[in-house]
Amino acid sequence: MSDNGQELAAGQLRHWQSTYTARPGMYGEQPSAPAVHAAAVFRAAGARDVLELGAGQGRDALFLAREGFTVQATDFSAHGLEQLRAAARAQHVDERVTTAVHDVREPLPLPDATVDAVFAHMLLCMALTTEEIHGLVDEVRRVLRPGGVFVYTVRHTGDAHYGAGTAHGDGVYEHGGFAVHFFDRDLVDALAEDWALEEVHAFDEGDLPRRLWRVTQARPR
Ligand SMILES: C[S@@+](CC[C@H](N)C(=O)[O-])C[C@H]1O[C@@H](n2cnc3c(N)ncnc32)[C@H](O)[C@@H]1O
């Protein structure tokens, strides 16, 4: 990124914290379509525990817990995770949900080969450099058990906001205070190197609409 990446990241953390404080339930209480799909994929793979990255206020972590998975939900926004924990208690799934404040630019706080599945909806396309995204996917691979599945979604270069707003370099554009790294297909393929790439599915979400890819890849046994 052409700007100071640390400054952009710190600004994004402040922005997510204040957004979640101002807008409880900003993504609604229903699970996202990718989470519903991921639950079916994870169940078919025999997964029991799921690590969610960028869980935010928890619409998907809570759904996965209601579906019977044990969920470790992480995000760099403590405010989002506080709301997630309160909702987990209200829904009586708090025994199956743990939270950890974690910035994905740091190594994942888990030992090697200790989770069955990883889910990340619109997290890899945050204000991360290409190098940081590669580092994160290497970390996901490290913590997954052999045969474990990773389902992630990202906004891509077909999105209406691609190229709009403030350009930060390395595919990152900031619009309305939110910085997004718009993925191209080469990046998706590069991140699947040494994985079994099972699916790249295009879909829309929201009113804009956001244009996304849902990617499913497995760590080979
Ligand atoms: C677009 S929101 C999606 C939230 C949630 N996955 C959902 O769909 O409801 C992106 C989330 O990623 C989090 N995030 C952004 N950058 C992050 C980082 N470097 N480390 C950890 N979380 C981050 C934000 O706080 C926010 O909760």
From TrEMBL:
Gene3D superfamilies, A to Z? Vaccinia Virus protein VP39 (3.40.50.150)
Keywords on this record? Methyltransferase, Transferase
* InterPro entries linked: Methyltransf_25, Methyltransf_Superfamily, SAM-dependent_MTases_sf
Tell me which Gene Ontology terms the entry assigns under biological process: methylation
Q: Which residues form the signal peptide?
A: none
One Pfam assignment: Methyltransf_25
Instruction: Spell out the molecular function terms from Gene Ontology.
Output: methyltransferase activity
- Report domain Methyltransferase positions: 50-148
Highest taxon of source: Bacteria
Q: What class of enzyme is it?
A: transferase
Determine if Hydrolase is one of this entry's keywords. Answer: no
SUPFAM superfamilies associated with the record? S-adenosyl-L-methionine-dependent methyltransferases
| E.C. number | 2.1.1.-
Q: Identify the PANTHER family for this entry.
A: METHYLTRANSFERASE, N6-ADENOSINE-METHYLTRANSFERASE TMT1A
How is this protein named in the record? Class I SAM-dependent methyltransferase
User: What is the source species?
Assistant: Streptomyces sirii
